[in-house]
Predict the 3D structure of the following.
Amino acid sequence: MQSYKIYINDTPLLLTNAEEGFKKMPGTKKNIVAPYLGKAHSLLQYIDMLEKSDNFESVTIFFNDLKQLKKDFFSLFNKISAAGGVVFNPAGQVLLIYRRGSWDLPKGKIDPGETKKAAAVREVQEETGIVNIELGQKIAKTFHTFIRKGVRCIKPTHWYLMHTKEMELSPQAEEDILEAKWSDLDLFLREERVVYPNIVDILTQTKAILEA
């Protein structure tokens, strides 16, 4: 099954192809399942619903042409591409930052003419003060939406595995980063902390890659 998970107000909206299982799923009040009828404007009802309420656990929209569904969905947003890193030190600890009331990973907007990899390394350097970074494999891509100056935006973020021997961190105050620290990945995933769900997703995927 192919799919795209987009977080809207921290609730996952899943775009997927029309497999028989989804055609037969009735959905619930908390988990909405619906077909896409081919009109991009109709997707706004689900976007608006999730923007205004956090009472839902998920929304799944299915269509036999997933490429067209994704294109129509993205047409409703201004796309801002970003890149970031999941960085580990020699002790196997992961680098985390704290900003705007939530734990996060270093990431940022890709500049014009900049490659995804270069942007990921630059953002880690700028936001954490680390200079020497060994770039590893691409982990995955996450999506989340937000509203800026009345305009709906969607941010695809490209995540890369990184390693460094540097231990000293210098959080970038200009980006509202209050703290940067090294943490045990398993412990962090088990503890109850304020953290964006897409960050939990990418950390979980990273853990699976490292354990494979």
Notes: DSSP finds six helices and twelve strands in the chain.
